[in-house]
TrEMBL record, chain A:
This is Sorting nexin. GO terms for cellular component: cytosol; endosome. Residues 29-176 form the PX domain. It comes from Oncorhynchus mykiss (Rainbow trout). It holds the Pfam family Vps5. InterPro entries: AH/BAR_dom_sf (IPR027267), PX_dom (IPR001683), PX_dom_sf (IPR036871), PX_SNX6 (IPR042136), SNX5/SNX6/SNX32 (IPR014637), Vps5_C (IPR015404). Belongs to the sorting nexin family. Involved in several stages of intracellular trafficking. One of its GO terms (molecular function) is phosphatidylinositol binding. Keywords: Protein transport, Transport. PROSITE patterns: PX (PS50195). One of its GO terms (biological process) is protein transport.
Automatic annotation (TrEMBL), chain B:
The keyword Protein transport applies. GO terms for molecular function: phosphatidylinositol binding. This is Sorting nexin-1. Pfam families: PX, Sorting_nexin, Vps5. The lineage of its organism: Eukaryota, Metazoa, Chordata, Craniata, Vertebrata.
Length: 398, 739
């Protein structure tokens, strides 16, 4: 990457220091004064982002009431994985992990811009650069928001908030020295996933005893697919919406030679269009993406429950067998007991979780759709006004 | 004596301008051949000699004596006028009795001998043969007929006169272009006479006889006349073009009158020259003519443009009676009265052109594209309907059917005629083999319908541009195109025909020669404008590409929005919560409408905006072509000057080597090339002025066009935004209803 790129990124990391406390949290969370977590600051360095996690708490297990630590994306992932791996939490929807900060796209664009520097006018170049900076900033903010949402969900969860790992994550002011998974672990993960999905198909085939869960299962399977589809489509729509704007930009600079007023108009409408695209991105695409992950988490929960159910049934069978043979009855009985307990526990909490999930989802959709509509209206009206005034001016000066 | 003297000089002072008209005249009127004439002098030389010989063939004995003078005389005005006018000129005096005026004229110079240099010439041709370049012309013939005294000179004239009625009867048009010859003689004498004399009389005369050109010249650009002499000059010159064509028929007799004077003048010069001995004159010739000619023209130009038009009008009034005192009086006054309405009309054109809010008297629309025929021979025919209040058309509304190649044919004709003069001829839309083949082969699908509509709109704009151009509107081909029911099929417009190939080669050589011409630009304005045009061209091209890709992106956006709408609908259908499900299906509907909106917007992007840009990219090509034309004329002028220089050198060499037989040939060459140089210079000036005017007009038009289209475009944007607001407003309560 050229020197411009480096300069741009270093410039950005300075810009962003104060750009964190985002109001656009996607999910509806019941706020609780006893534990409040937010990301007060974030710093972009080359290929990693450092988040400053700020905690305010009255809980007795924390040494202080208010403190901050610096965390990286990998540490968030570690926290998430530790939840997933903990059997205790099998009955809960684990808040989906935040997506990896992805600046590759805008880096690539920046590189292209650097290469094309000679072929465009200075004016165009600076405008393009500004554009890219804005785009980069938007991605950055989004990333921060996603991480914040994850922490907030955990902090708001009645069980998860009491997790030790979580507390360490919040309080320990040194590097947690978590490392990314190495190749072997990744392979293991991969196999686990394959086994899990194969198992998932098996488990899904099992008829559930509970109508509620049966219904939820079919719904979630369908819903997940639909959300996935909608999210990819919306992404594409927004991408094409965004890709329009650099063209408008060049048109406006070209037009500048002819009609100052119209060029101005183009410039302004372009900005509005860009805002529309950004807002659609934020309100619609992010919502869908979040629910894509959330529904995946819910599916995982159902899988775990299904697994537990199958285990329970197997344990029952084993107990029957043992009884018939009158051998190891006690052992079979205890394992059956354990499975039963586990299943019961999961079922109980899962039911509550799924109901919560539903209400959360409806509320989130409502909030976002209303906001989307309002923003679209606002931008359209602004655009309309601009156009009207421009047409007025053009018609006026004959 | 006094009257005759008044009568004779008048024609001159004027005549510089009519000339440019003349060319235009002939263009618009009838003249391929005349056109050729302007192009290359060689052809012209042929013409006069031919006609002269024709004429003289009947007058057997004197043919030798008479033809050379005619030829020589013609050699100068050659490019502007065919020989016919000359003949007409000669005819008039004959009817009056050729000898009488001549005598008068001869007397008159004598009386004023002291003041006018011309007179000096006549008195002592031997000693001072110098001053007038025209003398050269006259000298040479004289040398040929040295042995034969003046008499033969007169005789052939008389004979010719007897013959000419025939030619006149055949072509009334021929009577028209008499001015150029007069011009030849006028310029100089006007200077010569006008200065020493009281300018008053000179001006009076000039106005009285040349009232038509006068009116044109001064009536329109009243205010401007004094500011920019050069420029005006040619602006005015343009105006008569239109007018002259109107005038030609009814006023031919009027023109016949004028020449009498011209001729008399000419007669004066021929006679003395014949008398004078050649030997003395020959040496001074070259030098003098060289210096004098340009001077004279320059002065004449200045003088004319400085004349205040008001004065002229008054003087014209005063002059009328005086004119009527002499023989040609009635016809002159008739001509004075007739042109009046014509001029009014002309003023209208000018205002039409100058005011931006025009009262458009001509409305053209193209409708009903219809496929005619089948297979590869199929073509689209368009209905061209015209609504007009212009008197030049036969009726107020008429409709014709034209096919695309007819439009191309019209353009070919127009550009052949007008590009040479520096006009910007609006180009038609390009041939599109791809698009047309699709239409020919394809069924009625979306893209071919769009193609036809796009082409129809482009053709309409093209025709409107043509008729909006005041000079092109006057072109008979345009009228024919609009009015005539059965149009002969235009040839050579096929993209892949042999003619097309030839055209391509021509274009290639043109661009090659363009590169080789290094013009040292004397006029900063042109230099700047050319650069401006080129920069603009580039900008427009870039803009066009961008708008195209914008259209592409909008289409993509529309498709993607459609896809999203569908998947949202699916999501809605699988949603548990009924209110949310409802809201989602509403959202799907909104997105569906947005898809439509984006599609419409993409269409208006390309129709309003991209097409406008494409049009102007083509138009800028024409603008550049007119700049190139100016450069070519300049090049021709320079070449002629170089040639003249060479001829002079050879003459000097010959003189030094003392070879009298070849010397004569050299002198002939020199006079010929001198004439050409002047001619080309004038051509260049004329083309420059036309180009300048055309470019200004083009810019005005462009600004207006852009404004109109952009407003239209913005309005379409406005509408789609309004729609958008409506859709989202409808959606908002649905979103809020989710509980």
């Amino acid at each position: 990457m050229g020197s411009i790129a480096a300069q741009l990124f270093s410039g950005l990391s300075r810009d962003i220091k104060s750009g964190s406390s985002l109001g656009s949290v996607n999910v509806d969370l019941q706020t609780d004064a006893t534990l409040q977590v937010d990301i007060s600051d974030a710093l972009s360095e080359r290929d990693k982002v450092k988040f400053t996690v700020h905690t305010k708490s009255t809980l007795p297990n924390f040494k202080q009431n208010e403190f901050s630590v610096v965390r990286q994306h990998e540490e968030f992932i570690w926290l998430h994985d530790s939840f997933v791996e903990n059997e205790e939490y099998a009955g809960y929807i684990i808040p989906p992990a935040p997506p990896r900060p992805d600046f590759d796209a805008s880096r690539e664009k920046l590189q292209k811009l650097g290469e094309g520097e000679g072929s465009m006018t200075k004016e165009e170049f600076t405008k393009m650069k500004q554009e890219l900076e804005a785009e980069y900033l938007a991605i950055f903010k989004k990333t921060v928001a996603m991480h914040e949402v994850f922490l907030c969900r955990v902090a708001a969860h009645p069980v998860l908030r009491k997790d030790m790992n979580f507390h360490v994550f919040l309080e320990y002011n040194q590097d947690l020295s978590v490392r990314g998974k190495n190749k072997r672990e990744k392979m293991e993960d991969f196999f686990k996933n394959v086994v899990k999905s194969a198992d998932g198909v098996l488990v899904a085939g099992v008829k559930d005893v509970d109508d509620f869960f049966e219904h939820e299962k079919t719904f979630l399977l369908e819903y997940h697919n639909r959300v996935k589809d909608a999210s990819s489509k919306s992404d594409r729509m927004i991408r094409s919406h965004k890709s329009k704007s650099p063209h408008c930009l060049i048109i406006s600079t070209c037009l500048g030679k002819f009609f100052l007023k119209v060029s101005e108009l183009f410039e302004k409408t372009r900005k509005i269009e860009a805002r529309v695209a950004a807002d659609e991105d934020l309100k619609l695409a992010d919502l869908l993406k979040y629910y894509l992950r959330e529904s995946q988490a819910a599916k995982d929960l159902l899988y775990r429950r299904g697994r537990a159910l199958v285990d329970y049934e197997n344990a029952n069978k084993a107990l029957d067998k043992a009884r018939a043979k009158n051998k190891d009855v006690l052992q079979a009985e205890t394992s059956q007991q354990v499975c039963c307990q586990k299943f019961e526990k999961i079922s109980e909490s899962a039911k509550q979780e799924l109901i919560d999930f539903k209400t959360r989802r409806v509320a989130a959709f409502r909030k976002n759709l209303v906001e989307l509509a309002e923003l679209e209206l606002k931008h359209a009206k602004g655009n309309l006004q601009l156009l009207q005034s421009c047409v007025g001016v053009l018609k006026g000066d004959t | 004596m006094a009257t005759s003297s008044e009568r004779s000089p008048p024609p001159f002072p004027e005549d510089l301008e009519p000339e440019p008209d003349e060319v235009g005249d002939q263009d618009s009127d009838d003249g391929e051949d005349i056109f050729l004439g302007t192009d290359n002098p060689l052809e012209i030389k042929m013409d006069p000699s031919l006609s002269a010989s024709d004429i003289t063939s009947s007058t057997k004995p004197l043919s030798e004596a008479s033809s050379p003078p005619v030829m020589d005389l013609l050699s100068e005005p050659a490019s502007e006028a065919s020989s016919a006018p000359m003949v007409d000129l000669l005819m008039e005096p004959a009817s009056e009795g050729s000898s009488a005026p001549m005598v008068d004229l001869l007397m008159e110079p004598a009386s004023e001998a002291s003041s006018a240099p011309m007179m000096n010439l006549l008195m002592e041709p031997a000693s001072e043969a110098s001053s007038a370049p025209m003398m050269n012309l006259l000298m040479e013939p004289a040398s040929d007929d040295l042995k034969e005294p003046p008499k033969p000179d007169i005789d052939p004239l008389a004979d010719i006169i007897n013959d000419t009625p025939l030619s006149e009867g055949k072509t009334p048009v021929a009577a028209m272009p008499q001015e150029p010859p007069s011009d030849l003689f006028d310029d100089e004498p006007s200077e010569l006479f006008a200065e020493p004399r009281q300018s008053n009389t000179a001006k009076q005369q000039q106005t009285s006889i040349f009232d038509e050109p006068d009116e044109d010249l001064f009536s329109e650009p009243l205010g401007e006349a004094s500011k920019k002499p050069q420029n005006d000059f040619f602006k005015e010159a343009l105006a008569p073009v239109a007018k002259a064509s109107n005038v030609c028929g009814p006023l031919s007799d009027n023109y016949n009158e004028q020449p009498t004077d011209i001729f008399t003048e000419e007669a004066i010069t021929t006679l003395p020259s014949a008398v004078s001995t050649v030997s003395v004159n020959s040496k001074t010739n070259g030098v003098h003519s060289d210096e004098e000619e340009p001077d004279i023209f320059a002065e004449a130009t200045v003088e004319l443009s400085l004349d205040s038009p008001r004065n002229d009008r008054k003087k014209k009034e005063a002059a009328k009676p005086s004119a009527s005192a002499s023989a040609p009086a009635p016809s002159v006054s008739a001509s004075a009265s007739k042109p009046q309405p014509k001029t009014l009309e002309e003023v209208q054109y000018i205002t039409l052109e100058e005011e931006v809010e025009d009262k458009f008297e001509l409305n053209i629309s193209i409708t009903n594209p219809e496929k005619v025929g089948d297979g590869m021979n199929a073509y689209m025919a368009y209905k061209v309907s015209t609504q007009t209040t212009l008197p030049m058309f036969r009726s107020k509304t008429f409709t014709v059917r034209r096919r695309f190649s007819d439009f191309l044919g019209l353009y070919e004709k127009l550009s052949d005629k007008h590009t040479l003069n520096g006009y910007i001829v609006p180009p038609p839309p390009e041939k599109s083999i791809m698009g047309m083949t699709k239409v020919k082969v394809g069924k009625e699908d979306n893209s071919s319908a769009e193609f036809v509509e796009r082409r129809r709109a482009a053709l309409e704009r093209y025709l409107q541009r043509v008729v909006f151009h005041p000079s092109l509107l006057q072109d008979p081909d345009v009228r024919e195109f609009l009015e005539r029911d059965d149009m002969p099929r235009a040839h050579n417009t096929q993209a892949l025909s042999g003619a097309g190939f030839l055209k391509m080669i021509n274009r290639a050589t043109d661009s090659l020669s363009k590169m080789t011409i290094k013009m040292n630009e004397s006029d900063v304005w042109f230099e700047e404008k050319l650069q401006e045009v080129e920069a603009e061209d580039q900008q427009l091209r870039k803009l066009h590409i961008m708008v195209d890709s914008l259209v592409g992106h909008r289409k993509e956006l529309s498709v993607n929005t459609g896809g999203f709408a569908k998947s949202v609908a699916m999501l809605g259908s699988s949603e548990d919560n009924t209110a949310l499900s409802r809201a989602l299906s509403q959202l799907a509907e909104v997105e569906d409408k947005m898809e439509q909106l984006h599609q419409e917007q993409a269409a208006s992007d390309s129709f309003c905006f991209a097409e406008l840009l494409a049009d102007y990219i083509r138009l800028l090509g024409s603008v550049r072509a007119s700049f190139d034309q100016r450069m070519k004329t300049w090049q021709r002028w320079q070449d002629a000057q170089n040639m003249l220089q060479k001829k002079r050198e050879t003459e000097a060499k010959l003189l030094w080597a003392n070879k009298p037989d070849k010397l004569q040939q050299a002198k002939d060459d020199i006079t010929e090339w001198e004439a050409k140089v002047t001619q080309y210079e004038r051509d260049f000036d004329r083309v420059s002025a036309t180009v300048r005017k055309e470019v200004l007009r083009f810019e005005k038009e462009k600004a207006r066009d852009f404004k109109k289209q952009i407003i239209k475009y913005l309005e379409s944007l406005l509408q789609s935004q309004q729609q958008l607001i409506k859709y989202w407003e409808a959606f908002l309560p649905e979103a809020k209803a989710i509980a």
